[in-house]
Amino acid sequence: MLPSQALLLAVVFALAALQALASDTFMAAVYEHAVILPHPTQEPVSPSDALALMDKNMDVLEGAIKEAAQQGAHIIVTPEDGIYGWRFTRESIYPYLEDIPDPVVNWIPCTDPSRFGPAPVQERLSCMARNNSIYVVANIGDKKPCDSSDPSCPRDGRYQYNTDVVFDAQGKLVARYHKYNLFLGENQFNYPKEPEAVTFETPFGKFGIFTCFDILFYEPAVVLVSKMQVDTVLFPTAWMNVLPFLTAIEFHSAWAMGMRVNVLAANTHNTSMEMTGSGIYAPAGARTYSYNMKTEDGHLLIAELDAHPRLSPASPPAVSWNSYALSVERFSQNDHEFTGIIFEDLFTFTALTEPGGNLTVCQKDLCCHLSYKMAEKRDDEVYVLGAFDGLHVIEGQYYLQICTLLKCPSTNLSTCGQPMETAQTKFEMFSLSGTFGTSYVFPEVLYSGVQLAPGEFKVLADGRLINQNTTSKPVLTVTLYGRWYEKDPPRTDQASA
């Protein structure tokens, strides 16, 4: 046998062995954490006081990590801001930051904590992962010095980043991600000069990671899934719920379905700021989730996921989102259209005046078609079909196309679009579609009490969002939430100091 043939056989056997070790499924965990917050201050606290607060939060996270590992979880995601909170100025957050190296350095902080200077937080997170043989995902702050040779260097001589880190089951740092799309008020942080597409391989699939507000933009979120072909997205977030379309459980589960990828979403828990809603989501729907505005308790979620969801028989088919809607004429010419505001966006509405029927409402290039039948038409509840086709400009600038079946808070049509958490009307059937110009559409069904409907609806290959059977609970909204990334305005530079 020639040496080259022997080498080839060795490579083939090695690949076969790796394939045998790879898992078809894995156990995932997320922890929704009620963060212990610092006292608001404009002045920096001492490093020891900062570490004391972070240790209090890490004590709680360590308990959740141990429990998840005992229940067989391979990986756990903890929330954005989960270790120190969010009450900071640029100056006051500095004692909480550490220098986080690029993972190429091959570093296990648990066994070599001083290699890159003081890193007590990274050391402890690394030991949590190593001691429990579990991948640990956490959100902390990174600091990087700079000087006048860098024209973008902030006046205080350092960059500060909102940063996700991942430690593998041996405690090694395997991923570091700097948040690119900062939310309003995150003035304590800089954004990286270029978006980072961070991925890493595991025996149970290829993972990508980004943070909170990133999910609404093309980079890095869509790039990781569409171009980098990750199997699972790790998603630490501090998500403030906004009804009717942007509650955490509603949008994150819809994003997983629309992108045909697993999402592990860990939210912070703070009811005074409308922060709750974590879940483990697959392309076919939520595997488990939690939404709790009644208590201030944290919550651990664990579920099994397909390691390679695109290859799973349960994975939904690819969708042509406008195929059906473009093939039909307008269902009706309604002379009673009116406008209403949802999250400062001006929608065009038409009311569902009959117990069942077919309706169309249009705005600009988007026409939304609805076929429906209510289980019972109530006189004290009003539902509308709505359309929005335009640029959203409140907490960011991004282009939306939205078709929605929506319950109004009262029979007064001027209230349509305002937040509403309860309903009494069930639907025997609904079919919602739209003439979308984008291929990125996220299907949402939200029930009364802000509850998801896993397994009760599906999206057909021609773009229709339909229910499987009579809805088990009253409906708040049925929505196709489209993002037209190509129409987003050019990104403007954010303040660097």
Automatic annotation (TrEMBL):
Alphabetically, the GO molecular function entries are: pantetheine hydrolase activity
Gene3D superfamilies assigned to the protein according to its UniProt record, in alphabetical order: Carbon-nitrogen hydrolase (3.60.110.10)
Q: Which residues form the CN hydrolase domain?
A: 31-307
One of the GO biological process terms: pantothenate metabolic process
Q: Which UniProt keywords apply?
A: Glycoprotein, Hydrolase, Signal
What is one Pfam family matched by this protein? Vanin_C
Q: Where is the signal peptide?
A: 1-22
SUPFAM superfamilies reported for this sequence: Carbon-nitrogen hydrolase (SSF56317)
Q: Does the keyword Signal apply?
A: yes
Active-site residues, Swiss-Prot/TrEMBL? E80, K179, C212
User: Its family?
Assistant: Belongs to the carbon-nitrogen hydrolase superfamily. BTD/VNN family.
Q: What is this protein called?
A: Pantetheinase
The organism is Taeniopygia guttata
